[in-house]
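[[Local backbone shapes]]
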Amino acid sequence: MAATRSRTSSFSRNQSTSPLSQIHGIKPGPNGVTYVSSGIPDLDKILGGGFPLGSLIMIMEDAEAPHHLLLLRNFMSQGLVHNQPLLYASPSKDPRAFLGTLPSPVLSKDEKSRSSIDQEQEKGLRIAWQYKKYFGENQQNSDRNATEYCNEFDLRKPLERHILNAQRIECFSIQESPSLSAFCDRCSSFVTQTSRNDGGTISPGRIAIQSFCAPQCCYSEMEWDMLSFIRSLKSMVRSSNAVAVITFPPSLLSSSFSKRWQHIADTLLAVRAIPDEDKELAKLLTGYQDMVGFLHVHKVAQINTQVPVILEATTFSIKLQRRRSLVLERLNQAPVDGSSGSSHDVSGSCGGGSKSSILDF
């Protein structure tokens, strides 16, 4: 009897491991989209996974408070922890000095227990203790942080120097740039280095541009040239494995150009500071004392799909958990009557009450 042949189909699932699973800091999403973390766990959940590769994220600044730097620092630190190349552009003369303000990742409970056990075991090692730095302790901690997709960062603790020295970081001063074409060429050369290599794996890159169109720049009044640069940057990033984040003050632009910038962005965010001692706002919102600002999500990136993203909420409060980590929470309205939590002006029924209500019909 002839041996039966096992049928093979061209539609059989490929069981080989994906290159994405072998790289830290990357998470596959629906419709073939690949995400990188924003550096804030709550923001990744709100956006459906993080920032898609090949997208342009724009953050509208608040003229009264530099809350946009909180988002930008976490975005940059998350990329450095994941060994991802970074291009940082700033209107200051020395943009590399800003790297000293990047926050350090917070150790988890398991890592804290491991470090305490290691310290107890090393108490007995009194010979050649000065060679402790050669044991690779910092390298082990960085490897543990790199395995997590999104870390929590301590805003009070700066990023370790060995992480800054080990990564490929390019800093660019927009103030000293002769023209936007030179800045565009710098971004183009960086983006070309973040393409797929021969092995098929992805080496994502991050571009962080702070306060674009700031008055310190010589081309701050060249609105058409800046718009052309943003369009070129978006096209370069879309066909590469990079993510670009641009913060800009919309108050310095005309209303027409500000709307054009917002339309170009794939993901559009806005930060706003809380006025000092706003008693009316404190009565409306719960946890007002712990808030430092508001984050408004105007637009979420739609890559490889035409289905719009509908969020449960678009405005979130920015809080500092234990005064060190950023936390985003939905706004909760405080009860009108602080003692009982109920209001006498609004009734839950649609009629039949002695008191008049808005819901009566």
